Structures are given as structure tokens and as C-alpha cells.
Amino acid sequence: MLSRLSIAARSFICAGLAMSALALAPAASAQVTKIQPNPAALILEAADVKAGTDMIFLSGQLAAPVAPPAEGATPEYGDTKAQTISVLGKIKAILARQGYTMDDVIKLTLFVAADPKLGKMDFAGANEGFKTFFRTAETPSTVARSTFQVAALVAPQFLIEIEAIAAKKR
């Protein structure tokens, strides 16, 4: 009986040491691969994130007012393009505070409401705002992305809300 316990105890200890070694393995295997078979496409087909990669998930962000409103006036947020630029600017600032860049963004989800001035969703405006942040000299890559038309956002002046996921090597 003692020899069985000894063998079992040794196996348990060896397994524990092996798992510890794996847990302490360098993060060199951490990898983010942006998959884009069509280099001319505006967005990625996919992003492959391997184990050992740091990730951050940003809550949906809304635009900031274009300028501080006059006393008693309703804030102005601009059209879909202006709001997209505002939201992506907020996302860029949040990421920077956490040590990420826009090039680390792997996935965006856009929720777009109809612009009352157009009577419909301004998908082209969202894309124009998007292009000011991706496929640029500062951020040459792009991201995986989904866009949903929604009936409304939290308040009628908001035309777009964007969620982001970023990943980078440790």
C-alpha cells in the first residue's frame, strides 16, 4: 500500500511540476494574426488570437459633443461620420491609457441608428469615419468588423455606438 501511495504521490508531484513549467513558459508563443485574403478589403476576414495574448474588451462608446453647448442648448454631436470619428478617438484614448494602440484592435462592432436628416442609416458615413483610423500611416492594418442597424441608441442624438476588442503580445 505504501509503495502505491508513493507512486501516486510521485505522479501527482510530477504532473504538478509539468503544469507549473507550462504556466511559467515565456509568452513568446503569444500571437495575433490578422487574416485578410483580399488586401483591398476595408475589413479583415478574421483575427486569430493565440493563448498567452493580452486582450482588452471595450464597452460600447458614444460620441462626445462637437463643441460645448451654450447654456440651455442641446449638445450637437454631428452626423454619422463625425460621430464615428469622435467614438474612434475615444476608443484610441482608452486603449492608449491601457498600453494599447489602434493597431492592436482586432474587432469592432458598430451599432448604427438612422440619421433623422437622411431618414436612413448612414453606412457610408460610418465607413468614411472608420477610414480616418484604419489603413492610415499610423495604423496601416484594419480589423474584423460587424455593423448592425438599430432602431435607436440610448438617446436620439446618438447615431453610432462602437464596441472594441484589442489584443497584443505580452
Global structural class: alpha+beta
Q: What is the straight-line distance between the termini?
A: 47 Å
Q: Strand share of the residues?
A: 25-35%
Global shape: globular
Total domain modules: 1
What do the pLDDT scores average to?
86
Quick one: CATH superfamily?
Answer: RutC-like
Number of helices: 3
Q: What is the CATH-assigned architecture?
A: 2-Layer Sandwich
Top-tier CATH class: Alpha Beta
**β-strand number:** 7
- Element pattern in H and E: HEEEHEEHEE
Helix content: 25-40%
Q: Which terms summarize this structure?
A:
29% helix; 60s Ribosomal Protein L30, Chain: A; 7 strands; 3 helices; 170 residues; two-stranded antiparallel ribbon; alpha+beta; 28% strand
Structure at a glance:
The chain has one domain (27-169): 60s Ribosomal Protein L30, Chain: A, CATH 3.30.1330.40. The chain has helices at 2-23, 80-97, 123-131; strands spanning 32-35, 46-49, 53-61, 105-115, 120-121, 144-150, 160-169.
Overview of the molecule:
The protein is built from three helices and seven strands; from the N terminus they run αβββαββαββ. Helix 2 crosses helix 3. The chain has a single domain, classed as 2-Layer Sandwich (60s Ribosomal Protein L30, Chain: A), CATH 3.30.1330.40. It has 170 residues and is α+β, with helices and mostly antiparallel strands. Strands 3, 4, 5, 6 and 7 form a five-stranded mixed sheet that branches. A two-stranded antiparallel sheet has the order 1-2.
